[in-house]
Amino acid sequence: MKKVLILFISMLGSFVSKAQQLECGTRAGSVPYIFTKEKQDSINSIMAINTPYCVRVYINVLANNDGSNRADTDANILTNFQYMVNAFKSHNICFMLINIKQINNTDLNSHTIAEESELLPYLQSECLTIFIHSSLSGYNGNAYAIPNTYLSLNGSSYNIATMGHETGHCLGLYHTFQKFGDPAIQENVTRNSGNSCYNCNTQGDLLCDTPADDDGGVNGACVYTGGGTDPCSGATFAPMTSNMMAYGNFICRTTFTAGQGNRMRSTILGTPSINNLIADDIVYRPSGINSTILWNNSSEGFETARDELYISNFTNDAYNVTGAAVRRFISKKVYLKPGTHFYPTTGKVHIKSNPYCN
Ligand SMILES: [Zn+2]
Q1: Assessment of whether the complete model's pTM goes beyond 0.85
Q2: Span from the CA of 136 to the centroid of ligand 1 (angstroms)
Q3: How far does the centroid of ligand 1 lie from the alpha carbon of residue 269, in Å?
Q4: Model confidence band, residue 15 (pLDDT cutoffs 50, 70, 90)
Q5: Residue 85 has pLDDT above 50, yes or no
Q6: CA of 254 to the centre of ligand 1 (A)
Q7: Nearby residues for ligand 1 (ion, Cβ within 5 Å)
Q8: Measured in angstroms, how far is the CA atom of residue 106 from the centroid of ligand 1?
Q9: Is the pLDDT of residue 257 over 70?
Q10: Ligand 1 centre and the CA of 311: distance in Å?
């Protein structure tokens, strides 16, 4: 029993030291990104038609110039990816992993948030691009902006919830303890709209189904330890320690609320750059008769669909991959019809069934 107790205490110790790492460097901006009621209503009216939204993801894992000091292993990346998939699933958002690519660049492997512009040449169009560095100026993760199409993770310190947390920022979510502009103004505890302290729809994360949060601390048993009170009513904070967008102990963070799911889906539908990350449900390539697609140079690209991807489905519509071209075909189901010609020499063709959107 004593041995078990000692083990438990040493585990607690490691959790505490983990929490001392800076969590997230994502800047929210001084003005909240608000969906008007009219916009939200119009979005909600079409929302049910083609969910789940399937977000294409491309992961760049950094290593040094000589290939050493790779920021993370594929196995660990996939564990974190699956954890993210699980957290988003009940909110009608799923994912498609296009590729994990190693980039040898010592400078980018040891990255600081101020060097954000150095990421831009490596962004994959139409994908949420995730960078994994071996160091990230002391942070576990950073989404750079809300919303955004790329994020960075620190491969040596990020925890299992960080990928999903930063992706939450990219899809429009704020921290549950967010403050805008005047730092003296924070979200109050009350959820009674008749109360003069009611401000959960304009402060914090702009959502009233996430309790007000003062980021006061969470212990290893997922219990809030802060005890702070809001300055308007003096009511004690009781934050949701299981929320993916809170700080605190990483083992606790598993959940998005319905309001957060709604806000992410609104961001997907209402923000063109984010909508551009979503795979269509059924895709035909080429898209009609008498057209030809030929990839014969060293370009790299992909064809994707959430449910069904048809290659060369129509009359006289050849799809050719030759030479050094690299193409990826990913969907729940991929159909290769007559007219499909894959004969790459130094290139490659990858055909994958997507397991992250069921
Ligand atoms: Zn964050």
Answers
A1: yes
A2: 14
A3: 22
A4: very low
A5: yes
A6: 14
A7: 24, 26
A8: 26
A9: yes
A10: 40
Highest mean pLDDT among 122-131, 156-165, 177-186: 122-131
Q: Give 172 Cα–ligand 1 centroid separation in angstroms.
A: 11
For residue 113, report the distance from its CA to the centre of ligand 1, in Å.
Answer: 13
Of 3.40.50.410, 3.90.1310.10, 3.40.50.720, 3.40.390.10, the CATH number of 2-185+243-275 is 3.40.390.10
Span(s) in the chain for CATH 3.40.390.10: 2-185+243-275
Rounded to the nearest angstrom, the distance between the alpha carbon of 144 and the centre of ligand 1 is 9
**241 Cα: distance to centroid of ligand 1 (angstroms):** 14
Please give the distance, rounded to the nearest whole angstrom, from the Cα atom of residue 133 to the centre of ligand 1: 17
Q: Is the pLDDT of residue 271 over 50?
A: yes
Instruction: Check pLDDT > 70 for residue 8.
Output: no
Note the pLDDT of residue 33: 83
CA of 245 to the centre of ligand 1 (A): 6
Tell me the CA–centroid distance for residue 174 and ligand 1, in Å.
Answer: 7
Expressed in angstroms and rounded, the spacing between residue 208 Cα and the centre of ligand 1 is 19
- Predicted local confidence at residue 29, as pLDDT: 79
Three-state SS string across the chain, please?
CHHHHHHHHHHHHHHHHHHCCEEECCCCCCCCCCCCHHHHHHHHHHHCCCCCEEEEEEEEEEECCCCCCCCCCHHHHHHHHHHHHHHHHCCCEEEEEEEEEEEECHHHHEECHHHHHHHHHHCCCCCEEEEEECEECCEEEECCCCCCCEEEEECCCCCCCHHHHHHHHHCCCCCCCCCCCCCCCCCCCCCCCCCCCCCCCCCCCCCCCCCCCCCCCECCCCCECCCCECCCCCCECCCCCCECCCCCCHHHCCECCHHHHHHHHHHHHHCHHHHCCECCCEEEECCCCCCCEEECCCCEEEEECCCEEEECCCCCCCEEEEECCEEEEEECEEEECCCEEEEECCCEEEEEECCCCC
